[in-house]
Amino acid sequence: NVQIVNFSTSWNNGLAFCALLHHFRPEAFDYNTLKPENRKANFELAFTKA
Question: Is 29:45 a contact under the CB 8 Å cutoff?
């Protein structure tokens, strides 16, 4: 569950991008395995799967 409260810090760990993608393509990856501290990996995953 990701809370979006603004357009800067809410997006800084990649989880919001991943959540958005996972909503439309849940089979693409297991969202529950993502960790907020893995920022680079989260962004790479989101933009690779998009």
Answer: yes
How far apart CA 11 and CA 3 sit, in angstroms, is 10
CA dihedral 29, 1, 12, 15 (to 10 degrees): 0
Q: Exposed (0-12), middle (13-18) or buried (19+): which is 46, by Cβ within 10 Å?
A: buried
Tokens of 3: 């809370």
CATH of residue 33's domain is 1.10.418.10
Answer whether 0.85 is exceeded by the pTM. yes
> Tens digits of per-residue pLDDT, 12-27?
999 999 999 999 999 9
**Domain span including residue 42:** 9-49
